[in-house]
Inverse folding.
């Protein structure tokens, strides 16, 4: 009996499934997503894969050794404002924390022009209105010392008022609770006594971090998406068991690994943004196999362009994220996005006769003009069609037939208003989008002390491979990898399948240098205990558990913290100097040589453990034979394509990517099509199929930074 | 008083009078300027380079933000980077502290005029500057100014400004509320070459650091500023290598030209006229009970705008700003209201804006006036009324009307400056930064934004209470939004908040106050809108708070504790807060827009449910009756109340004004139209068409005027006599025909009625702008 790894990712339109067998062979399948009951789409996708493998679904379920799943139920609940009616219990006098939003309007993830133009800058609709926020007398100070013990009479009255108002979940966040969680736990127990089935989240359990606003939002959002997500997951879990799946279901999380379904039901916040993160996880895995320690991952979809960074085999992390303008604590693989996708709209400013692309998007509905679903404003995808990059018959696996004439009309409309030719205008639209992408990648590399020339760029997502050759060249990157051909468009599902189990635990204990080893170790020990307990609960044997420790440090007096990895698992004699040096090294890497201030004292703020356990891995098999012979089956009829570098339209050869063999090499200008994406190979670049079946674009010369 | 003016080409020296750059800069021939700007690039190249330049500037700010050591600077984001052309016109300035870049171009121009010969400006130099008579806002705002060269020619400038924690003066932190003059304040540095050939001049740096109480923090910040400039300079050099100097410069000039074009296009849609506003500063030195008028006049004629401050009180005590502070403040409002669609590229617009201030006034002070408090007082009082005059001007165009914005919160900063020994045994000094939580003023189509920040620093975030408590020996009892604080109106101003704390883990905190806008509201409303709440200090000494905490009873308002209520004066120095002394600070909220009795009753109910207004205010100001027990609206009672209130206002009018009908009407405010009466243009009520007098008159003189005590302007205004001798009033102007509220005005009794709007009612106006009186 063989054994399969299965990854499933639910997107807005399609649910992707990737199945990897013991030999490493990859099978992909898609099924339409089924909003309202996403489990159905997931099961459809798995069954569609079973059919491709020639297996009865029940046989496949039986033989799955690991099923990893990325869910967007939580994300959708937030975006569509369909979360639970929640109550929030806070320290009395501090009820307005989540409304005040630190006196800001939520800046992260939004165009600065919009943020500064106040009529467009309202705060979000509150996820919890003031009348469902209860303050309770209790107080802890900055030493973690109790100033006012929890007033249980007030607490009970507060809980009863919330229950009377019909709340479906309760979030609890007291000031300084990360130093003294007892008050939150006591309140949780009181809620459980009065309403045993209530979904309850304590901030000290979810994100025990310093800063009440970002901790409160994390807790409130977790409660907000809790009932929906946990309802969905428990239903799915039962359904999969009924279908014959015997192993524990794993859920992908935004930290770049998977968690048990129980953990995901308790902390659904971890599933927000887990989809794009899986793309980075997949890249990490493939990068290890192929020997690329430094990778820029790019995912260009319909509405946005997402970028992640892997440096020396480790993904870059962020510790504060945002959703719907709310900023919240969560350790997460850092993904930065700009509104530059296939659906990004092209706008003309009539007064200054300038052209902008994005950040607003035509979305899936009406979508680009060429979809013929009512879009009237040209988009990047329309420009791609006009240029000839995208064939109207080969878009999204032929599932959407594109109307080239409509696209031309929309782009021509803009060209006329700017006095440009149709092709100059179309290639200009593509170029503006590509250079915006280069700018955000620059921000995440050059802006953080990395040189993009030291990186390989991975391009996935349906629209990415059409533009990667250009923005990679602009950055000086020498090589672009379009992973695994067919899996390029199901890359997040592949990432889910390749993810390890990961739990991240954090503790805040603010201390200034010189540091006491004993106090550091006390923190590390507690983290390790928590991680071991957690892993044991998930049934992971001690020998499979791996621990990595880190601390967030800063110059005393500064606000910005830098994560520094610890070498061992404890601070031992003579640790001070190496720790300081590690901090300075990391700090100067991020902020420039000479930027650290060696005379000053340092502070540790947060201790962190990443506890991992390896799961069965896809074993990618290298082709035994490489061939430079291109089969006739791979040749498709050529078509005229406009190349900006040549400034003219050229009859260009087109290849069927699925029929190219490892070792095959085609020189630009050319286009390689697969069912789900189009790889554009500009003049001067060469596309090779590597021994794993990935496409590699070699750029003739990296442009100097 | 003398008029000091750019218009008259008078040369001011930047020593005794503020520096006002001449139209033609006198630059030494030793310095070669790069003037070769291409114009032969396509829209795509333009957009690609424009986007890149915007990013260069954003990254420049981010670099400083990451590296700076000053918590005040970092929470308030009290910094800003800019890119300017070789001759010091703005290409971009950042989204941080807005006024800072507003004071940049004058300083760069000064350097071009005064440093191009000796010591010369060359590649690898940077200049340090903080002299308010040259162009800084106040001494703490230190600029580092970096020329960018290409092939031996000055190509452009990258600059940044960063508020320093302490650069000397008689008060720690360098805000000196008790200063007699600039000689009591931080060190003054006219632009000096502190970096030469890419090396820090150690001798100069030591002079700079020597006067600071926190030299190591200032040194760290200096390196942050340097790193920011270096990164931006390098990125521009890369752009030049990639696209050629001619093209990059061409794009910069095109950005300016586009900004100019868009600005002119907007001006062409607006009527000519004059708009005025008037506000007051209170208490200019410890012990003072004075009130000081601040006047602003905006005149539009064709494609030019002119700003004047004539009528503003003379410089006095420690409340002043210099010319650059006044101009920089006005530029903030100009940029946000008129240049937002050009990514805030204000340089092109500035070509059509004149500033004509009166010297020796509190916002155009001559040397050696005390100016260290400028940004929290004289500049704020210069800035916020500028939103009013500009908003009233752009109201004239239906499309631009949605950009109208009332004055926001913290329009005067209620400073809480304190010091002592912290819980870690270390000496500290701090300014509570909570008031940056501000509030955003009402718009003409929607409510303002509660605790939405200060509009002049649009992306800042106030610290978490846990952050403040970690660094200082405080325990916050509460931080909450204040009901009824937002100015009433058809669209309500945003609510402000209140922070309340006691000392914790220390036996005493030494406190200073520094405030204004506590007696007279400074966030006035517009077109019938009411003002937001004024600033308020609440101080209860010897309270029972510690016993309450021991009984497990937290409080949600300072009024809940028993103790001695003490009125703190607005510049009270060196008073002690003991562990049982409860100290709360409420900061100014935002002004409202339009007549509150025009507010949709449902919105008033929602506000009550959300704790934004009280039942009393809903009834008395909004004329809305709510059934408290059922939490529903009483619609018929609401209608009756509103009608009765309006009727009651005009009940004593014997002869009703005549109605004006027919002809084109032009809407000039929410409540006012201009309409031709035969051939004479008249004001008339937008609701009932009652004649409000010829356009040549002040419409207010034809309204029914009611003078109320200032307490009537907001439920939260207290007795002004606690702080000032002058008597402020809340004047209301109603339509004598229908009793509709046309406008409100806040004034001290001795000041005449202000003519706030004077639209030039010529034939062109009625022909080009027919707008139905909807």
């Amino acid at each position: 009996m063989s054994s399969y790894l299965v990854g499933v990712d639910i997107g807005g339109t399609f649910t992707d499934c990737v199945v990897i067998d013991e030999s490493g062979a990859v099978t992909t399948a898609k099924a339409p997503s089924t909003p309202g009951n996403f489990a159905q789409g997931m099961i459809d996708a798995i069954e569609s894969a079973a059919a491709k493998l020639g297996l009865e679904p029940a046989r496949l379920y039986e033989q799955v050794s690991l099923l990893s799943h990325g869910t967007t139920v939580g994300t959708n609940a937030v975006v569509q404002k369909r979360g639970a009616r929640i109550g929030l219990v806070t320290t009395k006098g501090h009820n307005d924390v989540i409304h005040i939003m630190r006196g800001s309007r939520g800046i992260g993830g939004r165009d600065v022009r919009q943020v500064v133009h106040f009529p467009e800058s309202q705060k979000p609709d509150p996820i919890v209105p003031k009348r469902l926020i209860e303050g309770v007398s209790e107080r802890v100070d900055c030493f973690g010392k109790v100033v006012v013990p929890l007033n249980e009479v007030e607490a009970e009255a507060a809980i009863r008022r919330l229950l009377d108002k019909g709340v479906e979940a309760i979030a609890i966040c007291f000031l300084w609770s990360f130093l003294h969680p007892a008050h939150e736990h006591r309140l949780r127990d009181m809620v459980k006594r009065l309403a045993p089935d209530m979904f309850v989240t304590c901030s000290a359990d979810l994100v025990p971090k310093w800063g009440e606003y970002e901790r409160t939002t994390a807790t409130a959002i977790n409660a907000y998406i809790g009932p929906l997500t946990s309802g969905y997951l428990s239903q799915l879990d039962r359904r999969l068991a009924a279908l014959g799946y015997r192993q524990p279901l794993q859920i992908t999380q935004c930290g770049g690994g998977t968690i048990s379904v129980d953990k995901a039901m308790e902390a659904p916040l971890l599933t927000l943004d887990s989809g794009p993160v899986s793309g980075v996880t997949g890249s990490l895995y493939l990068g290890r196999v192929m020997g690329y320690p430094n990778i820029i991952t790019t995912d260009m979809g319909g509405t946005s362009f997402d970028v992640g960074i892997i440096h020396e085999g480790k993904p870059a992390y962020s510790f504060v994220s945002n959703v719907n303008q709310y900023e919240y604590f969560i350790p997460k693989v850092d993904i930065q996005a700009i509104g530059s996708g296939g659906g990004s709209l092209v706008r003309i400013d009539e007064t200054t006769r300038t052209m902008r692309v994005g950040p607003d998007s035509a979305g899936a509905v009406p979508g680009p003009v060429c979809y013929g679903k009512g879009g009237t404003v040209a988009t990047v995808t329309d420009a791609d069609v006009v240029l000839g990059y995208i064939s109207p018959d080969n878009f999204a696996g032929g599932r959407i037939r594109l109307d080239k004439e409509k696209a031309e009309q929309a782009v021509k409309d803009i060209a006329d208003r700017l006095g440009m030719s149709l092709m100059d205008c179309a290639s200009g639209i593509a170029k503006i989008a590509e250079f915006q992408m280069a700018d955000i990648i620059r921000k995440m590399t050059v802006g953080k002390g990395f040189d993009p020339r030291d990186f390989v760029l991975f391009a996935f997502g349906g629209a990415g491979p059409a533009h990667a050759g250009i923005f990679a060249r602009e950055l000086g990157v020498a090589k672009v990898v379009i992973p695994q051909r067919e899996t390029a468009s199901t890359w997040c599902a592949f990432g889910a399948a390749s993810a390890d189990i990961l739990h991240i635990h954090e503790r805040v204990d603010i201390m200034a240098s010189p540091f006491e080893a004993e106090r550091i170790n006390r923190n590390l020990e507690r983290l390790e205990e928590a991680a071991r307990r957690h892993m044991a609960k998930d049934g992971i044997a001690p020998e499979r558990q791996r621990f990595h420790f880190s601390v967030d440090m800063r110059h005393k007096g500064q606000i910005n913290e830098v994560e520094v990895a610890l070498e061992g698992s404890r601070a031992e004699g003579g640790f001070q100097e190496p720790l300081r040096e590690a901090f300075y090294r990391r700090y100067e890497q991020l902020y420039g040589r000479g930027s650290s201030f060696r005379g000053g004292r340092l502070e540790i703020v947060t201790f962190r453990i990443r506890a991992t356990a390896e799961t069965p891995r896809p074993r990618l098999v290298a082709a035994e034979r490489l061939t430079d012979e291109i089969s006739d089956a791979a040749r498709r009829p050529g078509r005229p394509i406009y190349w900006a570098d040549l400034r003219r339209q050229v009859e260009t050869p087109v290849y069927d990517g699925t029929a190219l063999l490892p070792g095959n090499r085609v020189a630009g200008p050319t286009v390689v099509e697969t069912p789900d994406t189009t790889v554009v190979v500009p003049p001067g670049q060469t596309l090779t199929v590597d021994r794993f079946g990935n496409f590699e674009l070699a750029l003739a010369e990296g442009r100097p930074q | 008083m003398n008029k000091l003016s750019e218009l008259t080409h008078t040369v001011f020296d930047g020593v005794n009078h503020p520096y006002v750059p001449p139209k033609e800069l006198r630059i030494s021939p030793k310095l070669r300027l790069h003037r070769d700007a291409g114009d032969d690039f396509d829209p795509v190249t333009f957009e690609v380079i424009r986007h890149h330049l915007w990013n260069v500037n954003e990254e420049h700010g981010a670099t400083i933000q990451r590296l700076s050591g000053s918590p005040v600077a970092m929470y308030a984001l009290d910094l800003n980077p800019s890119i300017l052309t070789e001759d010091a016109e703005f290409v971009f300035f950042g989204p941080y502290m807005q006024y800072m870049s507003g004071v940049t171009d004058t300083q760069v121009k000064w350097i071009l005029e005064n440093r191009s010969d000796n010591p010369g400006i060359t590649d690898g130099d940077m200049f340090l500057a903080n002299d308010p008579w040259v162009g800084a806002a106040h001494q703490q705002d230190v600029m580092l100014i970096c020329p960018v060269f290409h092939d031996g020619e000055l190509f452009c400038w990258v600059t940044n400004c960063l508020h320093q924690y302490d650069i000397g003066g008689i008060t720690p932190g360098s805000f000196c509320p008790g200063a007699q003059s600039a000689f009591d304040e931080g060190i003054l540095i006219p632009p000096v070459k502190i970096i030469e050939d890419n090396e820090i001049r150690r001798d100069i740096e030591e002079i700079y650091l020597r006067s600071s109480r926190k030299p190591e923090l200032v040194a760290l910040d200096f390196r942050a500023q340097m790193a920011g400039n270096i990164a931006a300079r390098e990125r521009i050099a890369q752009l030049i290598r990639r696209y050629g100097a001619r093209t990059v410069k061409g794009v910069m000039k095109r950005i300016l030209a586009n900004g100019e074009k868009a600005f002119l296009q907007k001006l062409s849609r607006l009527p000519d006229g004059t708009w005025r506003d008037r506000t007051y500063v209170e208490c200019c030195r410890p012990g003072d009970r004075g009130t000081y008028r601040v006047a602003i006049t905006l005149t539009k004629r064709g494609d030019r705008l002119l700003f004047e401050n004539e009528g503003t009180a003379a410089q006095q005590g420690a409340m002043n700003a210099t010319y650059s502070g006044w101009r920089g403040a006005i530029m903030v409002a100009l940029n946000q209201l008129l240049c937002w669609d050009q990514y805030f590229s204000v340089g092109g617009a500035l070509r059509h804006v004149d500033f004509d201030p009166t010297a020796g006034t509190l916002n155009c002070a001559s040397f050696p006036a005390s100016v260290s408090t400028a940004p929290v007082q004289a500049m704020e009082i210069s800035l916020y009324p500028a939103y009013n005059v500009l908003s009233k001007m752009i109201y004239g165009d239906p499309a631009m009307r949605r950009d109208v914005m009332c004055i926001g919160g913290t329009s005067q900063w209620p400073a809480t400056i304190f010091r002592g020994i912290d819980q870690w045994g270390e000496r500290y000094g701090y300014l509570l930064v909570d008031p940056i939580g501000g509030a955003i003023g009402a718009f003409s189509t929607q409510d303002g934004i509660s605790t939405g920040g200060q509009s002049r620093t649009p992306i800042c975030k106030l610290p978490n209470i846990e952050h403040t408590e970690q660094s200082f020996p405080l325990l916050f009892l509460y931080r909450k939004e204040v009901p009824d604080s937002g100015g009433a109106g058809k669209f309500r101003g945003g609510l402000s908040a209140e922070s309340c704390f006691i000392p914790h883990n220390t036996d005493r905190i030494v406190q200073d106050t520094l405030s204004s806008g506590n007696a007279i509201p400074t966030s006035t409303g517009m077109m019938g809108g009411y003002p937001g709440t004024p600033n308020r200090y609440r101080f209860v000494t010897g309270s029972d708070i510690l016993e309450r905490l021991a009984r497990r009873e937290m409080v949600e308002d300072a009024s809940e504790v028993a103790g001695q209520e003490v009125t703190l004066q607005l510049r009270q120095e060196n008073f002690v807060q003991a562990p049982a002394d409860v100290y709360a600070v409420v900061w100014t909220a935002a002004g409202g827009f339009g007549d509150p009795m025009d507010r949709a009753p449902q919105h008033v109910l929602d506000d009550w449910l959300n704790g934004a207004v009280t039942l009393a205010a809903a009834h008395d100001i909004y004329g809305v009756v709510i059934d408290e027990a059922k939490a529903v609206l009483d619609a018929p009672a609401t209608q009756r109340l509103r009608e009765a209130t309006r009727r009651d206002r005009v009940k004593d009018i014997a002869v009703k004004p005549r109605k004006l009908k027919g002809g084109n009407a032009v809407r000039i405010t929410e409540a006012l139209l201009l309409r031709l009466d035969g051939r004479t243009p008249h004001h008339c009520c937008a609701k009932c068409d009652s004649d409000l007098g010829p356009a040549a008159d002040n419409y207010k003189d034809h309204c029914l005027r009611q003078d109320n005590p200032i307490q009537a302007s907001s439920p939260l205004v207290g007795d002004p006599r606690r702080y000032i001798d002058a008597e402020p009033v809340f004047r209301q102007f109603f339509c004598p025909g229908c009793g509709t509220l046309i406008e409100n005005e806040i004034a001290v009794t001795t000041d005449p009625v202000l003519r706030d709007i004077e639209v030039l009612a010529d034939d062109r106006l009625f022909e080009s702008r027919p707008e139905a009186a909807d």
In short: Chain A touches chain B through 85 residues (CB under 8 Å).
